[in-house]
UniProtKB/TrEMBL annotation:
It comes from Mesorhizobium ventifaucium. The gene is abo. Belongs to the GcvT family. The keyword Acetylation does not apply. Residues 376-431 form the FAD dependent oxidoreductase central domain. This is 4-methylaminobutanoate oxidase (Formaldehyde-forming).
Amino acid sequence: MSALHPKTIPAKARAVIIGGGVSGCSVAYHLAKLGWTDIVLLERKQLTSGTTWHAAGLIGQLRGSQNMTRLAKYSADLYVKLEAETDVGTGMRQVGSITVALTEERKHEIYRQASLARAFDIDVREISPHEIKQMYPHLNVSDVVGAVHLPLDGQCDPANIAMALAKGARQRDATIVENVKVTKVHARAGRVTGVSWTQGDEQGFIEADVVVNCAGMWARELGRQNGVTIPLHACEHFYLVTEPIPGLTRLPVLRVPDECAYYKEDAGKMMLGAFEPVAKPWGMEGIREDFCFDQLPEDMDHFEPILEMGVNRMPMLATAGIHTFFNGPESFTPDDRYYLGEAPELSGYWMATGYNSIGIVSSGGAGMALAQWINDGEAPFDLWEVDIRRAQPFQKNRRYLKERVSETLGLLYADHFPYRQMATSRNIRRSPLHEHLKARGAVFGEVAGWERANWFARPGQEREYRYSWKRQNWFDNQRDEHLAVRNGVGLFDMTSFGKIRVEGRDACAFLQKLCANDMDVAPGKIVYTQMLNQRGGIESDLTVSRLSETAYFLVVPGATLQRDLAWLRKHLADEFVVVTDVTAAEAVLCLMGPDSRTLIQKLSPNDFSNETNPFGTFQEIEIGMGLARAHRVTYVGELGWELYISTDQAAHAFEAIEEAGADVSLKLCGLHTLDSCRIEKAFRHFGHDITDEDNVLEAGLGFAVKTAKDDFLGRDAVLRKKESGLDRRLVQFRLKDTQPLLFHNEAIVRDGKIVGPITSGNYGHHLGGAVGLGYVPCKGESEADVLSSSYEIEIAGQRFAAEVSLKPMYDPKAERVRM
Ligand SMILES: NCCCC(=O)O
């Protein structure tokens, strides 16, 4: 594709896309397909010249979650059709893929993924070493314990995929211009207004309401110019390509994650690529201005261990000459997930970037999803996993990123054990009680940069995770904590909750507009509510305390704070309201369990009776010699109080609680116990059980929706759903066999047919078995129909009988919270 003369660059466009890699081309293609004709894509050098040109081009559909699988399948299907549509040879060949396991743990993981993939009609089959050998005779299978085969996976020519997408976009009137650098994204009053560009001596401005940052490893610094957080960092990625190997014919793509390796046969040569455990971050001093189709110096010492394993796995490599030893930079993110969506800091600033070496298979689906999102103003389905609003402002710190990506590159092929914690870039955000908890045996996990006590080790017990798909080393600790909450009293540090103040003359009207529940309650009341989108899907799940006539205090999960702030600010019209993040101002200590009243009454002279402080109310209290707000709510399904304490007084309050707690056997509890208790009680968790794709009625939260009040966002959709009836509903499961575990994404089998994934799971230490939540179809069915089916949960290919319930199996009448 040749460069176009700059005079062809329009002065105005509906959307400007920055970056001509596969990502930008896909966004342009999909916007054009939606009928957006006035789109301009600007590429600083030549199309594909950043990362796309050296990608391996593997198209693997086996992904860790439902919607990532859905997007990968979309890409695979699109790339198969693209050549016929555009006449550009894409090199797409459905050679299939094999992933082999060298350990039982890995076998369990890939079999679990296969169960999930089958739920989406992806052709996948578990195969034996003997069957591998038939498909892949060159492979040493002596230590292979299992494998999965996906016949419709494949490989392609990445640069030509991008070219085909670009051609498809241009056929629909998109303008694509090379050798044009965007120098600045302009904004006014919190909205994008256009971009300045330069080409040689010429400069110009394009007015646009939508700008899409698809700038790959340049995206972070481009975002920084506008205060937009895009936490990614480049790493060196290595592969080699052999000379032609006599007799080498078409082979499936092969992944041997236990050896960090992937293999691709191409034109009789073999490619061996790696995701080594400790990667080499690159570009710390910035990326050279003239970077174009560049590669980095080889580092044989770094690649040697991979090659050694490769020669053992594929003995023919020992005698094959090496044609190319390649090293090229690619972008990696702190959690190995890419970024899609609109920047919370700036309206009209969108992005599709940070692909963690799976840009080719991701870009087709991501471009489709982002284009629909831009077009409709709402994500077409749940994209929370890759939503830019999960990024934390501190994460653009370059030292943080450099250390973290040295780990995340290797994690692509590491065992993805449940509860696996990052080893790098830790301890950035800490509760004021961190050292107290650490001294008492806390083992920490990280969410949104927060260190949180996940479980408490006993004296003398190793304070580390031993990961497994079976019961991990903290299972008994969790049981003790869980039973303390059910039968006595437990103390959780939940300082990581996101806390937002909404204040001003119109605070009530503003929240009435956004929240589905009635927010016009008396000061002192707490309301559980959701904020909905136009489809009745759940954008946010929160509790709201009315502090005064003009002030509300919102509590959201720590991980969704940026998203929730963005949602609130996006919907501020002309109301007199200020929205402030006050997360760091208060620590949160939760006293939960039937003995919590006895304990809190010992600590404080205030009255905690049902008369004075019933469920769903708060009061200011004296605690020790300080103050706190005691909120009578619970996320574990017990009598309890969440204590909001000014950060400076948190340690004092903790010490007072601990001292008073000795008489009632107060137990310190971690986040794993919070999770197991809340799933027993069937309390939903945003991002797992409830998302913007899930209708609030189907999620079983109709009790918190007040359609009788004046209009609120999503009300019409709720009424429509009431009228048309539910298509699916969230139910609770308990496995009858007490041994297996549920985490999430296990397949729900109804009357022998897979109907969807478990959305969240944990071990119900009170109910005595693994418990989980998940949606089942119910169109036109009564509750009795849903309950009369037979249910099983498929875990790594094995099916286990499950009980099902529409009501919480634990305390279905909610008597305990009102004790
Ligand atoms: N860029 C390498 C992709 C690796 C994989 O698909 O497994």
